[in-house]
Write a structure and sequence with these properties.
alpha/beta; Rossmann fold; 3 domains; two-stranded antiparallel ribbon; 12 helices; 6 strands
Length: 246
């Protein structure tokens, strides 16, 4: 038990993480455990580190990596830092909305989606995971009526992982990517989107497509945000072609 003698008291403390020291001081009615949720709040960097460890331990690197939605953001974020781990990168509609912050049209398109996301966050904050998952699928990710058409197992997976999405949204850098760093990397990148997805999603893909020298664009006909679930054959066909030629 870490104790620090100060005056006539033994002061309990914990040291976690790394970097510049940040001292967390609890209130009079609580103790050090009240800070635990803040300490455990995830960031995309942590997800990137997990992917890094997975590639290195399973090996051999470099590896072909495919990521959907936030998984695509994770893959691109790690590739900007550790390009040598990637033989190719395929991402489908990474929600990197920060890269279109200077585009008034894209921001206008995003406004209604942002309102829906806030409503989803409100549900999740109250522990209403099923309601939040349904609203996310129908108003943010795919479209009206989709929830009831999804297999029951897929719906339950969405509900189970709702806290993960809530956690991701607490990261202030969740929607950012270093396109300049990515542009200096050599791995080929496939940027795919669905024809049923919002226009702003395609606008986001335009930025890395223009910045990355080995980027390719792919459209999955009839699909939206989760083609590996709704149109698996078309998605796998496109992904396979890309991997084979990379």
């Amino acid at each position: 038990m870490p104790l620090l003698r100060t005056g006539d008291l033994d002061l309990y403390h914990q040291v976690v993480g790394e970097g510049d020291p940040l001292v967390l001081v609890h209130g009079s009615w609580s103790d050090h455990t009240s800070w635990q949720p803040a300490i455990e709040a995830g960031t995309r960097r942590q997800d990137e580190d997990d992917l890094e460890a997975l590639i290195e331990r399973l090996g051999p690197a470099p590896a072909h990596v495919a990521g959907s939605s936030f998984g695509g953001s994770i893959a691109l974020g790690l590739a900007a830092r550790r390009p040598e781990l990637f033989r190719s990168i395929a991402v489908h509609e990474p929600p990197l909305v920060a890269i279109v912050a200077d585009d008034p049209d894209a921001l206008g398109q995003l406004r209604s989606t942002r309102a829906s996301m806030d409503a989803v966050l409100a549900h999740l904050g109250k522990g209403e995971y099923r309601q939040g998952a349904r609203q996310f699928v129908e108003e943010v990710a795919v479209g009206p009526g989709t929830w009831d058409r999804l297999p029951a197992a897929v719906r339950e997976t969405f509900v189970h992982n709702a806290p993960t999405w809530l956690d991701e949204q607490s990261d202030p850098d969740w929607a950012k990517i270093d396109t300049d760093a990515l542009a200096r990397r050599a791995a080929p990148v496939l940027l795919s989107g669905g024809t049923q997805s919002p226009v702003w999603s395609a606008t986001i893909l335009d930025r890395p497509a223009a910045a990355l020298p080995r980027a390719r664009r792919q459209t999955v006909e009839g699909a939206g945000h989760i083609p590996h679930v709704t149109h698996p054959r078309r998605y796998v066909a496109a992904l396979t072609r890309f991997v084979r030629t990379s």
